[in-house]
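Human:
I keep going back and forth on a fold encoding question. Comparing notes only helps if you start from a blank page. Show me how you would write down a chain together with its backbone fold. Write it directly below this note and I will take it from there.

Assistant:
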Amino acid sequence: MFSSDTKRKETRNSGFRRLKRTVALFLAMAFVSFLGLTGCKKGHNEYPVIPTSESRESSETTRKEIVPEEKTMELTIASPLSNETCQYLAKLYYAKSHGMLGDGVTGENVDLSFLDSIDLPFVLRVYSTSENGCNVSTLLQWRNSGDMPDIFLTDSFDQVVSESLATPITEYLSENKLLAADSVYPSLLRSFNVGNAQYGIPYQTSAAVLFCDMEVLRQAGIYSVSFRQTRSSLLNMLAEMEKLNEEEQTVLPFYLAGNLLPYLPSAMFNHDYLSASDTDARNEQAYRESVSFVESIIRSGYSYESLTEKHLETLFSGVSPLLSRKLGVWTGTTDELMVYDNYMPNTLSLMQIPGLREDEYTSPLLITYPLLISSACQHPKEAADFAAFIAFDEDALLLTARLQPRQGYLPSVSSPAVWKTYVRNQKYGDYLQQYYTLMDKAIMIPSVSDSENFNKDIAYIAEYIEKLNVKKTEDSKDVDTDN
């Protein structure tokens, strides 16, 4: 029934994904009709009541009375969550559906031994993926082998939909109370709506930011930085670092200024995403001013694109600039936090993509990864309900943060309790917490979709920067000739 682990390997282009499957628990009893979530979390009191041995015995009795003796349904989920976490989430789902949690019991304090006592009415199999889910290649392998997961997290939404690997779930979620507008961010939901049909359930979200290495900044006399940055403050910071290069090139103030362009127009002008490969979008003031700002960084000699191949080789000696400890500032997303933290655990800092006005937050630029329901799923209603539960239910999110805290991600719901727990369990949570009051003006960046249009945008930006470098070199030659 199960394939070898080799068959589960991620074939992601970056080469670092490997897929493992964990063995699921085979538990007895059929339960299909009750899978829809009908219970809501009980009200909190100041001193939560954690289930006692007596209450567990009572729950056990109730469970035995309502659950059949054999199970006929199986669900499979592919995500970064461990088998243990998924099984506990399934048991919490069942417990909440049947009112088995006591007053004040939440995902943060529920007794795990109580959850252990629950005999699930369905089989849940778990495939483990890399941090941001499955790509199309892996999903196609699963489909061709007849072993497609029912629920899966993906980093390639557009391709998954175009390949008909996922099924629309609008009808399955139409009456689901977890999708209430006052708890789920509408912009995240809309990101996964295609042709007026909802395909994806937003599960994990990262944000585009500027990273900086304070070790490099301190060499330039900069001992602290504000999260809120503007174009002028960023330019001043880069200029101070460039002073370290007066005698010889010792640091690089900014890495690849062109990487700002997918994000900068939205951040500075609170503008919807502008496609770089779209002529009309490039004529927008927000895009034109963003290009001008990027050009000013390059022409000032602050960026990777500013240096010749000879200078780059001298400075980095073949080492990746991002790992060299010679970079001041670079663009990235918060899900990459721990990669950089491994190399600069005490000197890594975050700043927002710069805006126009001092002491003002820019629009959060979000990249969201969705859960989808396979087009081969035999129980799409039940799968959609369970996926919505683990993505949107407050207790499910609290339990996940408790069992498997993950770094660099923002919640997809507005619950203060969830935000507090998520950021508390993260090393860089103080930075992420600042997004809480800004989510209503968030701009969605389509990079997670791995879409053809976004790839065209990146290609256009790269070509534009290359042409800019050519012109810069020609101008330099003209100056030398005149001299």
